[in-house]
Design goal:
Distance between the termini: 72 Å
Largest sheet: 5 strands, antiparallel
Oligomer: single chain
Number of domains: 5
Length: about 650
């Protein structure tokens, strides 16, 4: 019994429908299996690299290993598996559709043609579907799969190349810089391959121009991706595990970016058909012209790279350099590729070209030791007793707390001058930044002691002078307060009474102010120890930037840590939790300072790139306060992500 043609066609359609449904179900199943397998492969690789990349000598307990595996598994599964599963499902379903359509056309002996304007163009349905499939798959690959896959690859690469702590910010910065240009690269690549290998170049007008432009853009985009990765990896090789030298890393990274990008530009120009010799010659001439016209700038950049590599000083060091015909003192506040910026003790902000810094001699008074030997020359008259003068000077130096007792102060008789016996005095101070303040205190005390003991400090004798006896008693009168500015501690006041004066620190509690829970926890042990050593009461202020339960909980935990440490060390402590409201944090701290009248404001200063707001608050607060401010530099290690 023969079946009719209509029945056969119905059977064919039913079979194709069944095949389509089974193919879709099989596609979904295969996509899940393959996605799980690839995701598990990435999870195992990342766990192995994380274990090998930990701190040297650090052993994880079984519980810590369990938490590590659970955290990496959850993070990778949430980011990679959904995207991978979706793109594989789409790819397999489109393949099934393509097969079913091809079988459908063969079963029914169909051939589709269409007329377009002038001329006759024949496109099979399979060709159109191939092109659409290529574009759709490429689009979903870029939008859905590329982002999590690129982030996972960056994490694995950094763990493999530089297994160090504090790389989270670097990986995020690299991912942010790479994702946009990577999407552009693959978008052009998908369109280029789809047009070239599916539609054919003979059917596309102006293909030669489009071909060159596409190749040029893809090479430049690929070069940018390589530049970002290599520059960061090169920079990381100059980061010490103990302390991250950010300025050296930035200088190395910028130099590597310029060099690699120039190489990529040359390759792109050669790839689109230009003569390599002509390209090299043109780039050389352009570089020569720029170097000749900007020779000072180029010299400063070269000197900046040399400073970044040699590291003769760092930010915060006090240096002396000959600039504009005079010795310039100051604290380094910024080291750039073109210039170095310092602030003098007088508050002058000076920008010195790196070419000058590299060429002239630089005195660094902060390395390897911040101590400084100060030398004074003091003349006494020939009629005065030099032994008494030496005794008075040594007693004064031993009484001043800011003069070190080791090495011991020394007094030499230097020479017989025209009108005086010149004594050379040498003593050591703990911080070079306090040089002028301590010298002033020493000279004041020597002058008072010499006047009281009858030791004469002569002036040049050029004519006959009728001398009179120096007064034995001080004529100062009632006590007054002489200002004293110590760059390392801030503003102090010195009580001057008849006779040698003595530095008296203002009375009052210590105020520890912060708005960052990380800075509070990291600096709490040092602040409590400081209060204990000084014998002062401690007031701890935490200012909430925003009024919500999470911020209040963080502040309460930080204050709880201060109370715990203070109780252990036997320090009286008062904790305050305040809300900044609509005013800046530093103004809120200033209000509390006026209410509590502390003798010293102590703040923990984090050396991390993520605490720019905290450092800005510290800088502005120091300009507003008229009480000493002490910054405790701490390095905060980020907690492991749960």
């Amino acid at each position: 019994m023969q079946l009719s043609i209509e029945v056969i066609n119905y059977l064919k359609i039913a079979g194709l429908t069944t095949a389509l449904i089974l193919g879709v179900l099989l596609s979904i199943y295969l996509a899940r299996v393959i996605s799980r397998w690839i995701t598990q492969l990435f999870i195992n690789l990342e766990i192995n690299l994380a274990v090998k990349g930990g701190k040297e000598g650090k052993k994880r307990t079984p519980e810590q290993m369990k938490k590590l595996r659970r955290r990496i598994t959850r993070r990778t599964s949430q980011r990679l598996y959904p995207a991978l599963n979706k793109i594989l499902q789409i790819m397999f379903i489109f393949i099934v559709l393509l097969i079913v359509v091809q079988v459908f056309l063969e079963f029914f002996n169909l051939s589709l043609t269409m007329e377009m304007g002038v001329g006759r163009y024949s496109f099979t349905l399979a060709l159109i579907i191939k092109f659409v499939v290529a574009l759709v798959v490429g689009y979903f690959f870029i939008q859905v799969l590329l982002s999590p896959l690129l982030e996972s690859l960056i994490s694995l690469l950094f763990l493999l190349a530089a297994p160090r702590e504090k790389l989270l910010g670097v990986k995020r910065r690299v991912y942010k810089n790479l994702i946009a240009v990577t999407k552009l690269f693959f978008s052009i690549l998908v369109i280029y391959l789809s047009l070239k290998h599916i539609l054919g170049t003979e059917n596309i007008p102006f293909w030669g121009i489009f071909d060159r432009i596409a190749i040029f853009v893809m090479i430049i985009a690929g070069t940018y991706m390589v530049v970002e990765m290599i520059a960061e990896l090169l920079a990381l090789t100059y980061l010490s595990p103990e302390k991250m030298d950010v300025h050296t890393a930035q200088a190395i990274g910028k130099f590597a970016k310029i060099a690699i990008f120039l190489i990529g530009l040359m390759v792109a120009l050669v790839a689109i058909g230009l003569n390599p010799l002509a390209v090299a010659t043109s780039l050389g001439l352009i570089g020569f012209a720029l170097a000749f016209g900007l020779q000072d700038t180029v010299a400063n950049l070269a000197a900046g790279i040399q400073i970044a590599i040699d590291k003769p000083f760092k930010i915060g060091d006090r240096i002396r350099v000959t600039y504009m015909g005079r010795d310039t003192w100051g604290d380094v506040v910024d080291i750039g590729l073109r210039s170095t910026k310092i602030v003098t003790p007088e508050g002058e902000y000076i920008t010195i070209p790196n070419m000058i810094v590299a060429k002239e001699q630089v005195w660094n008074y902060s390395r390897p030791d911040k101590r400084l030997a100060e030398t004074l020359e003091i003349g006494i008259s020939y009629g005065s007793d030099w032994r008494l003068a030496e005794k008075l000077i040594l007693e004064i130096l031993n009484e001043i707390p800011l003069v070190l007792k080791t090495p011991r102060p020394l007094v030499w008789m230097k020479e017989f001058g025209e009108f005086s016996v010149n004594l050379e005095v040498r003593y050591w101070i703990p911080d070079a930044r306090d040089k002028y303040a301590i010298r002033s205190e020493v000279l004041k005390r020597i002058k008072d002691a010499f006047d009281s003991a009858g030791v004469e400090i002569p002036f040049p004798y050029r004519t006959v002078v009728f001398k009179r006896e120096l007064p034995k008693e001080s004529r100062l009168g009632e006590e007054y307060r002489s200002p004293l500015v110590l760059p390392s501690l801030g503003w102090q006041e010195v009580a001057i009474s008849p006779g040698p004066g003595e530095i008296k620190i203002l009375e009052g509690p210590l105020l520890a102010a912060t708005s960052s829970p990380e800075a509070a926890r990291a600096s709490a042990p040092y602040i409590v120890t400081l209060a204990k050593n000084l014998g002062r009461k401690l007031t701890v202020l935490y200012v909430m930037k925003e009024a919500h339960p999470g911020e209040r909980q963080k502040g309460s935990q930080a204050l709880k840590e201060f109370r715990r440490l203070a109780e252990r060390e036997g320090v009286w402590v008062e904790t305050l939790l305040e809300e900044a409201g609509k005013i800046p944090v530093e103004l809120k701290i200033l209000e509390v300072v006026k209410e509590t009248t502390p003798s010293l404001v102590v703040m923990g200063y984090l050396y991390t790139p993520t605490e720019k707001s905290e450092s800005g608050i510290v800088t502005r607060l120091m300009s507003l306060l008229d009480v000493p401010v002490m910054l405790i530099p701490v390095i905060f290690e980020e907690e492991e992500e749960e």
